[in-house]
Every structure is written in C-alpha cells, then in structure tokens.
Write a structure and sequence with these properties.
By secondary structure, the protein is α+β, with helices and mostly antiparallel strands. The protein has 4 domains: 1-227, Thrombin, subunit H; 230-267, no CATH class; 274-311, no CATH class; 334-364, no CATH class. Helix content is 11%, strand content 22%. It is built from 5 helices and 16 strands. Strands 1-9-8-12-13-14-11-10 form an 8-stranded antiparallel β-sheet, with no helix packed on it. It has a 6-stranded antiparallel beta barrel with strand order 2-3-4-7-6-5. The radius of gyration is 33 Å and the shape is elongated.
C-alpha cells in the first residue's frame, strides 16, 4: 500500500472517500466548468471513481490514491457508452501522488505528451485547462460526466502546484488523477494531475502533482510497459524486421535513405523528382501543374502547359476594344458598368442609362 510523503499529508485536507482505501484524501469534479462536447479531450479517460490521461498508446497517468481501477473508459460518460479497456498493470510513485496504469491494448485515440518544462516564477498566472469526471459541487451527485474548465496557476512548490482560485474553475470529488493541460511551445501537454483540495470544492485551492519532477520515472515505466512498436504508433522502434515508418522524421532536417522521399519530406529536393518543394531558390518544376487549368506565371509555358495558350503582348489577335462611337460592329464600348449599345439611342436614352447607373451606384453603397 502506497504512503504519501509527510509534506503531502501534513496539509489541512477535507477527508473523503478513496478508491481501494489507498489514502484518505478526497477524490476531486470540475466546479464552475462546462460539460465537454462529445469527442472532446479524447485522451482523458474515466477510471470509475477517478480520472486519467493517456500519455502513451497503452499507459494512463492518474493519481496514486485512486488505487487500481479495473478498466479505463474512453468516452464522455462513466457508463456503457464509453469504450472500456482492462487495466493490466499499475505502479504508484514512491513519494508523490502519481500513478501509471498499463491498459491491455492501445487506446483508440492519440496520447497527450507529458509536460517537461520546469516551472518557474514566470509561469504563475498561466492559463490551465482542467478536465475530469467528478461532481460539480461539494454536496452534488452529478459525477460520471466529462467536464472541463479554465483556471490559472496560482503557485507551485516542490512536487505540487495549486490552481482554482475563485471565480475560476476548480476540481472536486471524481476529478482525482485528471489532467492539468497547458501548451508549451504550442504543444498541448499534461503537466500535472489533480490530487486534492484545501477546502470545500467551491472554495480554497485545487492541488495537483507536477509531472516534470518525475519525468524520468514516467519514461522508465513507459519504456518497460509500452515500448515503441514496429507500426505507426508515433514512436520509432529500431529493431524491426522492416522499417518502422515512425523513424522517418520529417522535422529533423535530415534525409533517411531507408525512408525515401515518400515517407521523409527531408529527402525531397528542388529538382524534377515528382515532389513539389515550396522553399526553393528558384521554382521547383514539380510545382508547375499543367493539368489544373491555371497558369502559374512563375512557371511560364515551358514548365506549365496551362500557360501555353496565352497570347503574347502585341500578338496578331489583340483584344476587341469596341468600335468607335457611331461605328458598326460587335465591340460596343463598356465603361463604368454601363454599356451603350446599338447605333445611337438619342439623348433621352443616354440620359436614362446614366440615371440608372447612378441609382445602381447608390444602391450598392447602402
């Protein structure tokens, strides 16, 4: 049975029920939040009385005091509408209220990476999204629905981080183990997990456990229980019978010959290789599409067949600019949106046309 560090238990807590009798701290639902739309936050799972986050294809991050749930539910309700996958392994961190679960098969959605940025004073006040399946108030009984809310980092110290200062969102019973989401360098990460509250759900602060301080422990668990597979799982597996396409890194700036240009954009060049590369010193001929019906001036008729039919300036068939006033032919003068037609309609007709144009102009400006 896991025991939390003295610094954790010494704080004044409101004691509540715990799953598996692990620790007598209360489970934490999103107070002052909103019900998540169907399909929102798909990596956030229900664990029955707690919440968790998928951080690798088969590993779920949660709170240690949640015990060992039998399954993780992917969906927006803690009922049969969710896709439940059995939990086959669980390990709690030896000193902080964090645990990792291994599920029997890869989850049906992409995992969310853990936050690896060490917190500093400049992060205080940063926006945080909290998500969980808990209840909406101390004495409410509406847990089992995925909810979300926006709050801000209030403070942090050691392994803990506090959020939820009123009137922002707050956590409550059933949110334990749920994520604190934020973006580092434009990437959504889970950088803490809900642990406990300092007072009633509607008051005080919500406390989470930081994952950046235990990232080495998390990495070791994932490496043992969910190593990269020789398939498209977002991670490169080295010893595969055939090339793992996840090893074809399109963002490292280096071409892997084993991947080739189809799997690794870094293998594509600015010559005629069948791939259009945008940032070339001169236009890549593969970017000149002669079948899209549009002439790209940068390509010209030599590279873009759609440019071949354009008349050169000063050609033998200049555009028809109309016959001179009073002349005969099919090129009547068009000017300002009004056309004079025929062989002269008299002053009255011209005046009427100008009046109509003026009226149209006024109507357009309204």
């Amino acid at each position: 049975m896991d025991k939390l560090a003295p610094a954790f238990t010494a704080l004044a807590l409101v004691v509540g029920c715990s799953v598996d009798g692990d620790v007598g701290v209360r489970q934490q639902d999103i107070v002052r939040g909103t019900v998540s739309e169907d399909g929102a936050w798909p990596a956030v799972v229900t664990l029955g009385g707690c919440t968790g986050t998928l951080i690798s294809p088969r590993v779920v991050l949660t709170a240690r005091h949640c015990g060992t749930p039998s399954a993780a539910g992917f969906g927006n309700r803690s009922d049969s509408s969710s896709d439940w996958i059995s939990v086959i392994d669980r390990e709690g961190h030896p000193s902080t209220d964090i645990a990792l679960l291994t599920i029997a098969e890869p989850g049906p959605t992409a995992p969310v990476p853990i936050g690896r940025v060490a917190l500093s004073a400049e992060h205080v006040g940063q926006e945080v999204i909290i998500v969980g399946f808990g209840q909406t108030g101390e004495y409410n009984s509406d847990s089992g629905i995925k909810r979300e809310g926006v709050t801000r980092i209030y403070s942090f110290d050691g392994e803990e981080i506090t959020v939820g200062e009123s009137p922002t969102a707050h956590t409550c019973y059933g949110d334990s183990g749920g994520p604190y989401f934020t973006e580092w360098d434009g990437v959504l990460t889970v950088f803490a997990t809900t642990s406990y509250g300092t007072a009633l759900c509607e008051t005080g602060l919500a406390v989470g456990m930081r994952v950046d301080v235990v990232q080495d422990w998390i990495d070791a668990y994932v490496a043992e229980h969910d190593p990269p597979r020789c398939e498209a799982d977002g991670r490169c597996a080295a010893d595969c019978p055939e090339l793992d396409i996840d090893c074809c890194d399109a963002a490292d700036g280096a071409c892997s010959d084993a991947c080739g240009p189809e799997l690794d954009p870094d293998c594509r060049d600015c010559g005629a290789d069948g791939w259009c590369v945008a940032d070339c010193a001169s236009i890549d001929p593969d970017c000149c599409d002669g079948a899209d019906g549009v002439c790209d001036d940068a390509c010209g008729p030599e590279l873009d067949a759609d440019c071949a039919g354009d008349d050169p300036p000063g050609g033998d068939d200049p555009p028809d600019h109309g016959d001179p006033p009073g002349g005969a032919g099919d090129g009547d003068i068009v000017s300002g949106g009004c056309a004079t037609a025929g062989d002269g309609g008299g002053a009255t007709g011209v005046a009427l046309l100008f009046a109509m144009c003026a009226l149209l102009r006024r109507r357009r400006s309204r």
